[in-house]
Structure formats: C-alpha cells, structure tokens
Design a protein that fits this description.
This protein has about 140 residues and is an alpha+beta fold. It has helices spanning about 25-35, 45, 60-65, 75-90, 100-105, 130-135; strands at about 1-10, 10-20, 45-60, 110-115, 120-125. The chain has a single domain, classed as Phosphorylase Kinase, domain 1 (2-Layer Sandwich).
Amino acid sequence: WLRRTLKDAIYGRVRYAVLVRRRVTGDDHRQQQQKQSPPAGGLVEWFVVVGERCAVKEMLWTDIHGLEHVEDPRQEVKAMQYIQRHYEQTHPNGTYQMSQAMLETRVMMSRDVLDDDTFMYSVMPYCEGGEFYNHLF
C-alpha cells in the first residue's frame, strides 16, 4: 500500500509503503471462478494491513529506456538479486537474515521486484532514520 513519497530519484521516486496481504474468505474461490469483481468497499473487503514497512523504488519505464545515465536500474536490480541469492546459498538451513545480510554485504537487498506497463517497482526494507546508505559508512 503506497503511502507517501520519501525522495525523488533519477528514474522516479522512492515511496513509503505498508505491506498488505490479500484476505482469504470462503467466497474468494467462488468469485475467482466466476470472474466477479470485489464487492463495494474496496481494499477493506479484500486486503489486511500486515503492518511491515517498506521503501518502494518506483521507476518509470520511459525514463529507464530514454535516459542515458551511468546508473541502470535493471542492472542494479539484477546485481542485488545475484548477491542476495549468493548470500542465501552460503547460509543454508534457514540461517539467512535479510538485515544481517545487508550489513555484511553493504548491499540493500530487494524483497521483491514487480513491474507493469508504466513502472518497475523494487520493494526494499524501510530504513528508519534516513537513507540506508548513510548507515553503511
């Protein structure tokens, strides 16, 4: 659930978000089979606020494809995912902790990467007290 803009960035902006989870009810399966729309009332009827806070880097595809800049968001996301996978593989048996991984590798780990026709979204943990970069050095 995207809330407010934290910072403008080269390819878009970073937004504060609160995670929500789809609410599962007995009618959900029937409504999905019949391709029915959610009932009136919107998000309250279909989602539950989990409460976990995140930062979502929202990047415009037109800017990603159109701007020539040293930073390439697609490469950045690929690098974060590669380092995260490597860290997970070297810490087997469920000992992987995202916060510890970020401190040890000095790389912001992405929780998820999503996209649509307009934006690419990189969902990252929310860093209390300013930018994560400032806490690394």
